Amino acid sequence: MTRPxxxxxxxxxxxxxxxxxxxxxxxxxxxxxxxxxxxxxxPYSRASLGSNEMAEQWSRRVPVETAAExxxxxxxxxxxxxxxxxxxxxxxxxxxxxxxxxAIGVGGLGGRTGFLGGSVASAxxxxxxxxxxxxxxxxxxxxxxxxxxxxxxxxxxxxxxxxVGVDLGRPNEExxxxxxxxxxxxxxxxxxxxxxxxxPARDEEMLQNALAPWFERYPDVAxxxxxxxxxxxxxxxxxxxxxxxxxxxxxxxxxxxxxIRIGHLNHAVLHRCCAPVAVVPQRQExxxxxxxxxx
Length: 295
Description:
This protein is α/β, with parallel strands linked by helices.
């Protein structure tokens, strides 16, 4: 059985956008779509009785209504809904473990709000071992417009390039595979952004060596290379303007005072970027996305 694309839904506007993004992604991957809502009763010190009841009703009603609406635009999709009770980050982590990827909606897009404005999104990225895609509420109309209702086999859709950040010294293989696959599915260009702390000729040689296996595996993907001179987080975020997807590799998630860290650069990109952002954990030896600047 093909692993599903899962969209986590909570009581935010962005989660409906994540469901529509997930529907489009599932159609590209010829995969089922699971809409998972996670609800947890909050102590009265944190929430009133009324807000608890509203959140519970939302978790029951909106995913089912969203699934019905998506089905009208994507009739070929196998869509399922599931309601889980417990801490949302842990429930979403469990759902993601059975999926190709997990899409999470966030209310804010870019600027000061960024993608990590919500505690659920931040915590879920920190603990999930599968790729997590953070989607802003503005993506709903875009993804709905890309699918023609009643067409079971829509043509490839590309809304801008796919962007990926690469550490030339320790490339994240999972992130590169995810980025090349996403570009191939969309018939989109792949923009590779890397740090520059060596002579340009050496950087070019390292880049070609790092990408060689993916050039062979994905000959249909056109690649454009760009070096980030000193401000990789800003350049990655800026490259996300108009991009279909930005892909970040996630190495070691450092613990500090009980909080799991996802890395300064990744956090900075997530704080600024306005495109959907995929955070892809690395299974093997962890490392930062870009090498540290020489002292």
